[in-house]
Request: fold
Amino acid sequence: MIRFILLQNRQGKTRLAKYYVPLEESEKHKVEYEVHRLVVNRDPKFTNFVEFRTHKVIYRRYAGLFFSLCVDITDNELAYLECIHLFVEILDHFFSNVCELDLVFNFHKVYLILDEFILAGELQETSKRAIIERMGELEKLE
Amino acid sequence: MALSGMRGLSVFISDIRNCQNKEQERLRVDKELGNIRTRFKNEKGLTPYEKKKYVWKMLYIHMLGYDVDFGHMEAVSLISAPKYPEKQVGYIVTSCLLNENHDFLRLAINTVRNDIIGRNETFQCLALTMVGNIGGREFAESLAPDVQKLLISSSCRPLVRKKAALCLLRLYRKNPDVVNVDGWADRMAQLMDERDLGVLTSSMSLLVALVSNNHEAYWSCLPKCVKVLERLARNQDVPQEYTYYGIPSPWLQVKTMRALQYFPTIEDPNTRRSLFEVLQRILMGTDVVKNVNKNNASHAVLFEALALVMHLDAEKEMMSQCVALLGKFIAVREPNIRYLGLENMTRMLMVTDVQDIIKRHQAQIITSLKDPDISIRRRALDLLYGMCDVSNAKDIVEELLQYLSTAEFAMREELSLKAAILAEKFAPDLSWYVDVILQLIDKAGDFVSDDIWFRVVQFVTNNEDLQPYAASKAREYLDKPAIHETMVKVSAYILGEFGHLLARRPGCGPKELFGIIHEKLPSISTSSIPILLSTYAKILMHTQPPDPELQSQIWTIFNKYGSCIDVEIQQRAVEYLTLSSKGAALMDILAEMPKFPERQSALIKKAEDTEIDTAEQSAIKLRAQQQAQTSNALVVTDQPTSNGIPPANQLGLVKMPSISSTVDHDSAGQELSLENGTSSKVDSQPPADLLSDLLGPLAIEGPPSSSVQSQPNTNSVLEGAAVEATAIVPAGEQANSVQPIGNIAERFHALCLKDSGVLYEDPYIQIGIKAEWRAHHGRLVLFLGNKNTSSLASVQAIILPPSHLKTELSLVPETIPPRAQVQCPLEVINLHPSRDVAVLDFSYKFGNDMANVKLRLPAVLNKFLQPLSVSAEEFFPQWRSLSGPPLKLQEVVRGVKPLPLLEMANLFNSYRLTISPGLDPNPNNLVASTTFYSESTRAMLCLIRIETDPADRTQLRMTVASGDPTLSFELKEFIKELLVSLPPATRAPTQASPMPPVAQPVSVPTVESNDPGAMLAALL
Reply:
């Protein structure tokens, strides 16, 4: 199960943080700081997996943004790695050519998309089309 | 760039972005927070739009890392807004700002529930999402039934149902009781037929959680999962939008295979075949492609398939395919695949016996230990640790030691712990073990926990042969210019105890030893000084005749520390000074430390205790734990033949009569200190761990005549006994101090005929058993009931199955709480006909009492029989068609217990051998029939004819026929054992077999039944 999802830029600014396990605020800040330090300096030639406390962080870098998922150590790493890519493809589709700034100014949209994609720390929907269509429905309601 | 649609929010974000530095940003944020706070205070003037805007701003500020300690109420209150836009913000921000432990959240339960059961689909979705993401126990208790209804509702869109599935998963994880198994298993099976892949994906995650807790209840989902897998992987029957780089939903494939790993076996041959076809296709059909996403996705599926194949313990061919694949992966350059190769190889070690094949890759794995990526190094370390055994321990440990010097801090502690454990477990000789530990301390002292050096001291103390060697090694390290404090401690301790053994060597006289140890004193911390003081006292004691110069040096030190502010130091200094002025008496008082009682290595315990935190318990671990228990038992069995290599986990510590020696030493200490009147506190409990042993005051023994000297004797006697008495019983038998209640053999025989009853009982525990037999399967449940008001600890149950039974015992908890009953299901599969009996090796600790019993399990041949009555028309053609040996066997049996014919018929019937009266024209004869079930024979008809001699009831002629020669033989012998009352000793030599399961309780001598060791010996 996914414990939390973080989107951070190279400087460590959090662009999205979603926790599926109950953490205190102070703990969240600590986690964000540690995960950033953990992934930011890793060589691109290294694995996309790195141990984090009793769990494992699966991360992937897109331009200056790091997408990190913290999962159980028994979880299927590659499945989650591609889960990140699918999420990026959905964002890219939704914002047509997504860039960091889109995510900054529309962070609330990103949360909405994420809620259609992942729920309770598990994958909910893997069809890009289904999610984009759903976002269209929701936008009409606003 | 898309704009947010809320101007105020966009402006705020821009402002923040334009801040030149952190300070400016903080000011801007503080200003905004102040603004929001004032606006919220005067809520009346706030439009829903404004409220929404401020709540979003709060979330943004929160995301920037600032504490937002107000406004939670406002966010939660938006949930009950009537319109979608505000409600949406309320739900989303609440699930980001709050967690399940916040009280505010409880206030919202009613609103949330109304949204869930209401008719507005969008509201339903919002509510399900929030509950799914942050719902806690209270949500679980009040919402689960409603969520279940939505999941299976035919009027809801897939959109709602997939959210309901995962929301229910969350609630189930918070409280598994909210999903009532009855009826829900069928619903889950129906859900597996779902066409919408979104719903199916979500439901599959739910199923994984359900089966991980209780696979039996969801049995009917198993074939459905295989169908799903076929649909995806074989038929590729999915809508285009659910393929990912041409692969039919890799995530659903992975989840489905994950669910399948929680079912222990697949019984239905068709299902099994279909599954293996799919798996074979995945194993063979996954190629490396250029596109990285496609490659990752296909390998995600492949690795899950590997895990499933390992779990199912497939045919040899398929397993070796897996090993070959993994061997390929650990050598590739692509880091992710190599990482996964190493990881899965480690997992494979846990489930199957592939050690030898994996060893071939040792060199490759060691290369990965030097990889620049720490993730890969960690996996290589785990794998090396897992694959280590007596044959390669030296190489692997040496590699680890070498790596230790260059490893980064993050890995050193783990590395030294693992090296220490391996050295202990697989030491080809003890001096090597001492070398390794001293090297560890030398190279990475800071990372060597106390447990590690305590353990080496234990070994040295308990092994006389080792003492001079350890002492000389310790002496060598002291010559090094700068040594770690731990090294000072361990050297000082060892030299204090055993330094006198070196007395004749140059540089090792008492004065020199004292000199070189005392040199280190200024550099060590206060907590280590007591150890040095003890060493000085010991050196003094060993210097005979006393050396006045040395004596005065040491007395000066004792005098100096006699006024030390640290109580421990002061006490020791004062005591040692007084004691050592007693002259020759010192010799008797400061005798050598007694041997340590055998205990589980604190290190290994530590390694085992590292708990992993996962949403679902790991399938592989569940399985591995069971297997580890069985295979350990086997290792122990093999030991006597393993050409003198010390048994893995005992290394000479095992043979101590544990409890008595500890008590001796303590009571002696107590006596003495009372006499002296100086000691304020003496712990009368046996020390709980190593720490208290070593850091406690020096062992002060009474006159060495009694316990110390008698020990070697006790030792050798026990050793001898352990070797010859029982090949299969590991040492530790002597610790058995608990008397069983009732006759174990009687209970066993009763259970051979009944399916439930008590298997064993003693003052602390009662083991009940309940069994269900279906064809060649047996499902037993062991009921372990603690009869007392305190816990039973170190509970261990291991099944020693004979070769014809496949057994799987579910996890047995280490402790049984007071007055609690634990149920442990045990699955048995009968592979082929045999009369051998499975043995349950059961042990536990209650206070100081250790109990270990070996109990025969009533999974005997007759349990796999199905009564069957046949008519004359059916009987005779069959009887004739099975002509002569080896299918039809005849024997004249003498020495039969004389029984009236009617009673004999009853006896047969009670063992499920159905007597067909009147079938044989001769009234003195009996004809019986039954069906026998095993995996190799399947259902097989067995026919039996008994011809008795009315003149001599002690003999009869027996003919047994079936379609399988082994079965005919085993059944014949089985019946013979029923009918003949032979004492075990005079049984035919060919029978390496159990005692006959006789109908009436046999007259097994009580002594024997009370002594599990003897009982087991008889069994073998």
